[in-house]
Amino acid sequence: MADDGSAANRRDPIKSSVGNVAGQRRRQQAVTVAKERRESLVRAKRLCRVGANGDDDDEDPHVENEMLIDEDQPVLEAQTSKAVEELKSAVLYQGKGGMQKRVVALRELRRLLSKSEFPPIEAALSAGAVPLLVQCLSFGSPDEQLLESAWCLTNIAAGKPEETKALLPALPLLIAHLGEKSSAPVAEQCSWAVGNVAGEGEDLRNVLLSQGALPPLARMIFPDKGSTVRTAAWALSNLIKGPESKAAAQLVKVDGIVDAILRHLKKTDEEIATEIAWIVVYLSALSDIATSMLLKGGILQLLVERLASSDSLQLLIPVLRSLGNFLSVDPKAMLTILIGGKNTEESVIGVLAKCLRSEHRVLKKEAAWVLSNIASGSIEHKRMIHSTEAVPLLIGLLSTSPFDIRKEVAYVLGNLCVECAEGDTKPRIIQEHLISIVCGGSLPGFINLVRSPDIEAARLGLQFIELVLRGMPNGEGPKLVEGEDGIDAMERFQFHENEELRVMANSLVDKYFGEDYGIDE
Amino acid sequence: MEWNPQTLQNLSQCFLNTLSPLPEPRRAAERSLSEASDLPNYGLTILRLIAEPSVEEQTRHAASVNFKNHLRSRWLPPADSSALSPITPPEKEQIKTLIVSLMLSSSSPRIQSQLSEALAVIGKHDFPRHWPALLPELVSSLQKASLVGDYGSVNGILGTANSIFKKFRHQFRTNELFLDIKYCLQIFTHPLEEIFTNTGSLINSASSTNIKPLFECQKLCSRIFFSLNFQDLPEFFEENMEKWMFVFNRYLSSNFPALESTEDGLTLVDELRSAVCENINLYMEKYEEEFKIYLEGFASAVWTLLRDVSKSPSRDQLATTAIKFLTTVSTSAHHALFAGENVIKEICQSIVIPNVSLRDEDEELFEMNYIEFIRRDMEGSDVDTRRRIACELLKGLAANYRGQVTEVVSHEIQRLLSSFATNPGVQWKDKDCAIYLVVSLATKKAGGASVSTDLIDVQSFFANIILPELQSHDVNSFPMLKAGSLKFLTMFRSHLPKPFAVQLFPELVRFLKAESNVVHSYAASCIEKLLLVKDEGGRSRYVAGDISPFLLQLMTNLFDALKFPESEENQYIMKCIMRVLSVAEISGEVAGPCIGGLTSVLSEVCKNPKNPTFNHYIFESVAVLVRRACERDVSLISAFETSLFPSLQMILVNDIVEFLPYAFQLLAQLVELNRPPLSPNYMQIFLLLLSPESWRRSGNVPALVRLLQAFLQKAPHEVTQENRLSQVLGIFEKLVASPSTDEQGFYVINTVIEYLDYGAIAPYMTGVWNALFTRLQNKKTIKFQKSLVVFMSLFLVKHGHAHLVDTMNTVQPNIFTTILQQIWISNVKLIMGAIEVKLTAVAATRLICETPALVDPAASKIWGAMLDSLVTLVSRAEQERAVDEPEMPEVLENVGYTAAFVSLHNAGRREADPLPDIRDPKQFLVASLARLSAASPGRYPQVIGENLEKANQAALLQLCSAYNSRIV
C-alpha cells in the first residue's frame, strides 16, 4: 500500500517517489466500494430456471413451452398465493397420500417461481411460504420433497436483499442437507440456495459461517466432475469472498481442499474451472497461507496453461486475477514463472497481450494489472516484456482507452523503466526501456494522467515525468516534457490539497525548470 | 471547571468583553479565557453556555467561535511540544454526544455554522471510527426533519455531512479509507437519494414561495455526491445513475425564473449547477464507460447553458466549471462530439472569446488590487479565472483538432486586431483579448523562461502589435494594454534577438515610472527575467555591459517605484533590484546610492515586517551588493558597515524575530570580509553570540552557527581568551546532542579544529570526545556517524594521528580501536561531497600508512578492512555508495527550524578545502601505499588479497597502473 513510502516521501519526494510506487507490486485492494465486475458476467445470485439436474421435468412436458408465454404478473402472483395455500393444506394434511400431495403442491409452487425472469417472490413470501418450505425440509423427508423445497428457496433467495434475508429460518436445514448423507441432487440444490444467500452480503455470510456451512460445502467440490461440483464451487466462492479473511482462512484448513482445487484446474472442464478459479481469486487475495500452499502445489503453471489454452472470457478473468494476486504477494512466484519452462514467460506475455487486444474492457484491465506486477519483478522480466509486442500495444492503450485501463497500463510502462534490485535503496532507470517507451509516444498519455483528478494516476504521471526529466539522454527530458505542455500540467499542483503531490510537482518544476537563483556560479 | 451560575456569569462577561472596542477589557478577557481553557471540561462548559437561552446571542456567538478554536487546537495532542493540554477522552465523549442536537436546535444561523464547523473539526479526526454514533444520528435527524419539511434542519445536517465527507477526496487509496467510505455509503446513500429525489419533485411542483432552501439542499446533496464518488464509483451510484443524472440534467437545462430573477437566487441556482458540472466532470474523467450514455445530453445542455453564461459578467464559478467539463470531453475518447462542421468556430465565438474578453471586474481588480491581479494573470494562482479556463478549452480541442483550432483562433485574433485598428481608443479591449489569447495558448517552456506558439509569427506580432505599446510616449495611457504587452515580452523573452532586446531595455526602464502598479511591477519583472535568459550552453545572454549605459537611471527608477502608493513593499521591484545588483558592474558610484536606498527601506520595514518575500529580497540585495562591491574594492566595507550597523543593531536590540537570522548572516558576511583585528563593535556582538539566551530559538541556530564560524575563522585569538572557548564548546555540546542540530554542532567543532592552534584546544579535547561518544551511544544515526568520520579525519590531517589516538583514549582505554572498527571503517565509504571525500580519503590513507597501531602486522585485518572501504570510497560513484537512512525519527523537530530559517544565497559561506596541497586523493593513496610496501616487500599484496573484495582488488590494481605505482 501507499503507506510504505509516506515517511520517506516527506523527506525526499523525488528520490523515493519512483522506487516506492512504480517499483511496487500491487495486490487487488481487498476493500472495494465499486460494483464487483464479476457480477456483470456471472451473477452473485442465480435463479434456478431449469432443474439442477436438467432433466427432472419429464412428467411435465409443457413446462418449457409454457415458459415462453408471457403471463401477466398479477395472474402469476394470484396463482402463487394460491399455490402456497395449497401447500399449506398439503402440509397440514395427515392422511394417506400426504407425501404425494405435498410434492405436487411444492412442484406447482416451484414451477411458478421458475417460469419468469421476475419470479413472484413477494407474493410467495407474503402468503407465508418460508415456514412451510422449512417444514418440508425436515429430516427424513423423501428426496423429491427436499429437492422441490430447496429449489423454491433457491429462487426466493435470488430476489431482493430483504427477500434473501427471509431465508434465515431455513438456513440450518439447508446446511444440514449439504452433508454426505444427502443425495447428490438434494445437496446440490441446497448448495445453490446457500450460494444465493452468501451472495447477498457479508452479514448473511457470517450467519452461514457460524452455522457451519463451509466445511460440507468445501467437501462437495472433492469429486472429479458433475454439476454438483460446479454449483458447490460457485456457492463456496460466494461464501469466502471477504473482505474479511476469516472464511478464506477456514477454507484452507479443510483437509484436501488444495489438492481438489489443483485437480480441477488441471482438468479440461471449463465451467468447473471457472468457479474454482474464483475460489482461487479470493484465497490468493485474502489468505497468505493459502497462497503459499497453492504456490507449492504448482498453481502458477496451471494458471498459465489455462491462460494459453482458453478463450472463455468467464474463465480468463478469474485466472488473470489469481495470477496477478500471486505475483503481487510472492516475489518467488516470479522466479517460478521464469524457471518454469524455457519459453513460458514469453507465452505468458503473449497470452496477456492477447487479452490486451480483446474487446473486453475487464479483460484488458486485468491483463494490464497482471503485467504491472510482472513488470515490477526482476530485470529479466522487464526485458522479457519489453522485447514483446505488448509494449506498443500498451502505449496505444495509454492514449485511447478509458481511464481505469490507462491507469493500469501506466503502472506497467512505469515499472518497465525502473529497476529496483534487492538491496538497492534507490531505483535505477533502465534507460534503454525509457527511451523506447518515450519514443513510442507514451509521454502525452502520462502527462494526461497528471491532469487527472485521480490521486494515484496523477502521482504515477508525475513519477514518469520525473524519470523522463532525469533519465533521457543528453538532457532531452526537459525539452520533451515542455513540448507536451507538461510544465503547465505540473503547475496545476502548485496549490493542491494533497501534500505529497504538491511537493513532488513543485520540486520537479523548480529543479528542472526553475530559474537559477543566483547567476554567477 | 464546574458549571454553576457564577461560572456562567463570569464567562458571559468575558465573552462580551472580548467584543469590546477598548483594548484593556478586551485583553483582560482574552487572558482569562486563555487561562480558563487549560482547565478540564472547559470545552464542555462553553458548550453549555452556548446552549443557554438566557444568554444574549452575540455573547453565545463569541463563545461558539471560541469553542471551535478550542477544539481546533486541542482535540488532538499538539504535534509540537507546545504546552497546550489536550481535551480529555471523557470530555470528548460528552461533547460528541451533545454537539449534533445542539447544533440542530440552535436558532441562530451564525451559531449554527460555528458549531457545524466545530463538528467538522471533530469529524476530521474521529469520524467514522471513533464516532460511530454520528452518522446514524445525522440520518435519523435528517429523516425526521424531512418528514416535516423543515429544510432549515435538513440543510444543517447535509452541510455537516458535506464537511465530514470532504476528507474522502484527495487521499491515496488504502483499505482503511475504503472501509470508511463503505461504511458511510451503507448508512448514508439511501437517505441521501431519498431527500434528493423528494426535494427534486418538490422543486417541480413548488409554488414560487420559499424554494430557496430546496435548492440549497440539492446543492449540498450534489456536493456530497462528489465526495462519495471521488475515489471510486460505488455500486449504489452505478445502479442508480439514471435517477441522479436525470435530475442533474434538469438543473442544467431548465430555467427557474422564480429564483433567477434576483441576484441571490441566480447565485444559488448557479452554485447548484456548478456542483452538478463538477460531478459530471468527475464521471467523465473517471467513469467514462458507465457515464457515456448520458454524455451527449449533458454536453448539449452545458453548451447551451454556456452560451448564456458567457455573456454575463458575473457567474464566474459556473462558467469555469462548465467550461472544464467541455474541456474534459474534448480530450476524451468522445471528442468526436466536436468534430462537426463549424462546431469549433461556434465554440470559439460564443464561449471562448466572450470569456476571454476583459470584464469590469478585471479592470477593477487591475486598479484596486494589483497583487491579486498579478497572481491570477501571471502566476497561475489557485483561482481559476474565466479567461484562463476558456483558453484551456481551446487547448483541449487542439489536442485532436489542432489544424482547425489554429485556423479559427488565428482568424479571431485578426478580427480582434482589425476591430481595434478601426478605433483604438474605444476598442482597446479587443487588442487586450488578442494578446491574452496568444500568450495563453502558447506552450510553456523551461523556466517559464519562454513559450512557443504556432498561432502567430512571434517576431511580426511583436513588431506590429506589441512594440507600438512599448514605445508609446505616455507610460500611463491604456495601462492594461501596456501590462499585456510587457507580459508578452516577458513570456516570449527568449525569442527576441539580443540587439533588439537591448534597444528595448531603456523603454522598460521608462515603464518603471508608470503610475499603474501592475505596469511598473511587470516592467520590473520583465527586466528581472530578461537578465536570467541563458543562451545555449548556459551562458547568460545579457551581461553587465548591456545595462551599464543606463544603470544609474535604472536604479533610480527602481527605488523611485518603491515610493508609489501600494508599492512600498513591491516584491517584483525588490527582486529586480537584487537581480540587477547581481549582474551589473558595481562601482562606487552605484554602490553608494544603492546601499543608501536599501538601508532606508530596511529601517522602514523593521518597524513592521509584513511581506516576507519582499523582506527576503531586501536582505538578498544587501548581501549581493556587499559581496560584489567588496570583491572589486574591499575598502568599501567600512562604508557598508556605517550604513548597515544602525539597522542591524535595531534588529538585535528590538529582537525582531523575523529578521534575526538574516541579520546574523549579514554580520557573518561582514566579519568574513574584515581584516583582523575586528572592531570592538563586532566583539560586542561576539559576546552576545555566546550567551545561551541567543540560542534559545531554534530558528536562529543555523544563522548563529554561521556567524560563530566567521568569528572562529577571523578572530581565533580573541576567541581563546577569557574562557570563551569553553563557552563555544558548550554550544557545540548542546547542538551535537540532538539529531536535529548535530550537523550544526559539527560545523562549530570543525571550524574550531581547522582554525585554532592545537595548544588552545588540547585541554578541551577530552570533553569534546565525551560529548561525541555520549551522543553516539544515545542515538547512532548514519548521518551522525558520517559527520563523526569527517571530524576525526579533519582532526587527523590538522593535528596528526598521535594527538588523535591519545586524546580519544583518555576517555576510555582503547576506544580508538573500537571506534575505528565499528564506525570509521564502515562509514568512510558512505561519505559524499567532493571536499569531504578528499578529506576522508587522505585521512584514511594516512591512518593506514602512518599510524603505528595499524602498520603493526598484528592489525592486518583492520588495515585490510580500512583499505577495502577506502578503495570503495575513491573508486565508485556516489550513487552506488549511497545508503538512505532508514528512518528519521525526529522529523518534526527538523521541520520546526527549516521553516523559520531562510538561507541567504548571497551571504553564503564559501567552503574551503582544508587540504589545498593535495590535489588528487587517489594518487595520494597509491603513492603512500607504494612507499609503505616498499619498506616491507611481500607483506601487503597478501593482506590485500585476503581482505579486499574482488572488485576492490581490481579497482586498486587499476589505480596503481593509472598512477604508475606498485604495491610490492
UniProtKB/TrEMBL annotation, chain A:
SMART domains: ARM (SM00185). Residues 1-35 are annotated as: Disordered. Keywords: Protein transport, Repeat, Transport. It comes from the Eukaryota. GO terms for biological process: protein transport. Pfam families: Arm. Belongs to the importin alpha family. This is Importin subunit alpha. It comes from Eruca vesicaria subsp. sativa.
UniProtKB/TrEMBL annotation, chain B:
Keywords: Cytoplasm, Nucleus, Protein transport, Transport. Belongs to the XPO2/CSE1 family. PANTHER family: EXPORTIN-2, IMPORTIN-7, 8, 11. GO terms for biological process: protein transport. It is found in: Cytoplasm; Nucleus. It comes from Eruca vesicaria subsp. sativa (Garden rocket). Residues 29-105 form the Importin N-terminal domain. This is Importin N-terminal domain-containing protein. Transmembrane segments: none annotated. GO terms for cellular component: cytoplasm; nucleus. Pfam families: CAS_CSE1 (PF03378), Cse1 (PF08506), IBN_N (PF03810). It comes from the Eukaryota. SMART domains: IBN_N (SM00913). Its main location: cytoplasm. InterPro entries: ARM-like, ARM-type_fold, Importin-beta_N, XPO2_C, XPO2_central.
